[in-house]
């Protein structure tokens, strides 16, 4: 009887500390890779700012979740971050549309060579977006208790 309980406990630990985190992290990487692939297949340039745009969305989730927890706007047993993800998606979309209008649109309008100019512009957007995230959140890991 004790051996079967040990096997169940070992499986529960393996699931909670290895399998689920690996699936979660792998899904995040897959979404980023899918976004890079879609941008390249549609616009024909490599968007090096994709990772930092994902960080920008994460920053919005962290800020809104901290705000909601600070004001007591939580649901017991339900992660507040899940509630603010739709707002973060809208905020990140607006930011990326603004970057498209301010940076990428100009180079598409003058029909610049997309390979070099598009990559250089996306690296500039990457530095700007990363700087905004680091300026607002800082470089330290962010932690908050929730759900």
State the gist of this model:
By secondary structure, this protein is mainly α. Helices cover 80% and strands 0% of the residues.
Task: Determine the fraction of residues in helical runs and give it as a percent range.
Answer: over 70%
Biggest pleated sheet = none
Task: Compute the CA-based radius of gyration.
Answer: 20 Å
- Terminal Cα span: 34 Å
Number of helices: 4
Number of strands: 0
Query: How much strand?
Result: under 5%
Secondary-structure class: mainly alpha
Low-confidence stretches: none
* Average residue pLDDT: 90
Return the string of H and E elements.
HHHH
Apparent shape? extended
Overview of the molecule:
There is one protein chain. The chain has 147 residues and is mainly α. 80% of the residues lie in helices and 0% in strands. Helix 2 (50-70) runs antiparallel to helix 3 (80-109), helix 2 (50-70) packs parallel to helix 4 (114-137) and helix 3 (80-109) packs antiparallel against helix 4. The longest helix is centred in the first third of the chain and has 42 residues, at 2-43. The two termini are 34 Å apart. The mean pLDDT is 90.
Topology:
Elements: H1 2-43, H2 50-70, H3 80-109, H4 114-137
Helix pairs in contact: 2-3, 2-4, 3-4
Features:
single chain; 147 residues; mainly alpha; 4 helices
């Amino acid at each position: 009887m004790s051996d079967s309980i040990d096997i169940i406990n070992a499986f529960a630990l393996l699931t909670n500390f290895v399998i689920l985190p690996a699936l979660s992290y792998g899904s995040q990487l897959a979404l980023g890779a899918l976004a890079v692939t879609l941008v390249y297949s549609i616009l024909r340039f490599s968007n090096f700012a994709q990772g930092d745009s994902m960080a920008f969305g994460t920053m919005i989730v962290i800020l809104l979740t901290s705000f909601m927890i600070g004001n007591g706007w939580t649901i017991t047993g339900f992660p507040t971050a899940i509630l603010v993800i739709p707002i973060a998606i809208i905020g990140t979309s607006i930011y990326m549309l603004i970057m498209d209008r301010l940076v990428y649109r100009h180079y598409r309008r003058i029909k610049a060579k997309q390979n070099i100019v598009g990559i250089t512009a996306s690296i500039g957007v990457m530095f700007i977006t990363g700087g905004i995230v680091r300026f607002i959140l800082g470089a330290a890991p962010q932690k908050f208790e929730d759900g």
